[in-house]
Structure prediction request, 280 residues.
Amino acid sequence: MQWGMFQVINHQVPEKLITEVEEQTRRLFSLPVDRKVLAVRSSTGATGYGVARISPYFQKQMWHEGFTIIGSSAMAHAKLLWPNDHVGFCCIIEEYKKEMKSLAFKLLHIILKAMGVKETEEEDTKKYLSFLYDTPVDAMQLNSYPNCPNPNKAIGLAPHTDTFLITILHQNNTNGLQVRRKGSGWSLVPPVDGALIVNLGDFMHILSNGSFTAAYHRVVPNADVQRLTFAYFLSPETSSVVAPLPVFAVPRFRPVVVKEYIQIKETNYEGAMDSVRLQV
Prediction:
């Protein structure tokens, strides 16, 4: 897979639930700034309201605001935003995370088969991936890209690959997401009614021995309307070791601990993948 991105239909995630998450996302970002900053992400924290998580790795400011949820953080931050009306937000987010986790593992099963893992090898592969099946880590990111008066001179989200295994994204009916594969220019990923977008991340790239490329993507702002999206991320936990599956006879990447790779990417954002590539 050269693009590292595809759209999924017939995913069985209730449309009503997706609409409710979008409504809650709009509700959150419609709050006054002085209310939103009550849940601001701390300098050492990973959850809450703030700029794009990848912002520290780029000099250019991004036309974006986000809200990150990991574990039970939604409850703590929602109480700050809506002291007397936070339960609905939390329940909808939790229900959506459960649906996304189920879908992510269905997609993983399909992707493993596409890598060449046979049905007879599937249980062995699950043992090899026990770090993911036993103790997966997931997160959600709510995103707002306000309408921009001069979009040609701004960037919504800088070009990057997602670090983790798989990302499932919903975008409202507004263009902005673009993807690029090696040797080609940027291509628009238009919203498709009822579809969810799947991005493959760095760890999938390593796991697949490079046969499933991490999606190199960006977001461009819109002059006229606000763009809302929400993403679900699935990842191995930080002490797990990620390496090419045994189905690949000649590994192209060395085994790497998740925490180590994240630290490498923090100091060498563009060159992290090359740092674990083997010379074969």
